[in-house]
Amino acid sequence: MARIKGVDVPNNKRIEIALTYIYGVGRSLSKTILKEAKIDMNKKAGDLTNEELISIRDVLNKYPTEGDLRREVNMNIKTKMEINSYEGTRHKRGLPVRGQRTNRNARTRKGRGKVVANKKK
Prior knowledge:
By secondary structure, this protein is mainly α. The chain contains 6 helices and 2 strands; from the N terminus they run ββαααααα. It has a two-stranded antiparallel sheet. A hairpin with a 2-residue loop joins strand 1 and strand 2 (7-9). The longest helix is centred in the middle third of the chain and has 17 residues, at 66-82.
């Protein structure tokens, strides 16, 4: 397995898909990285040479990925929580942040459903 940015990318997948195993790299960024590194997208990750891996690592260092990106995202969330913005208060309460409905959904964030007492017939 090739190791890029501390992540083992699977050998049996195309390199375009294998790069998406790295946090912060999606399909479009992986295409951009491979174009910059001049590597064929259809090549399997296990078939890459050491020179190709080095060129991918060099191009990847230009973008925030893995630990740096996770740290940045967590700091942004903490900042919102400290200044008591609307998004910050939603994060504190464990509720959906981006405007989703909560009266009939969002169980994974709100917890188990509360049982309402049955009506007498």
